Amino acid sequence: MREIIFVAWLISLYKYNKVKLQEIKRDDEEGKRNYRDEVEKLVFQNLRALILFYIIVDIAGPYIVALISK
Predict the structure, then answer these.
(1) How many domains does the chain have?
(2) What is the mean pLDDT of the chain?
């Protein structure tokens, strides 16, 4: 079950990143944003999301399931 959730989450993250990168490229061409800085922010945002996903699913997941099933 955890693997299915992880794959679905990765697919949604991929779609979000694809749209976000298109916005960043467009804004970079218009001079509104710096491409390199925005991509760096996006990478760290994805890293934080991955760590948070790990904490929620792998560490807190069994406790949450135990609380729900009581």
Answers:
(1) 1
(2) 88
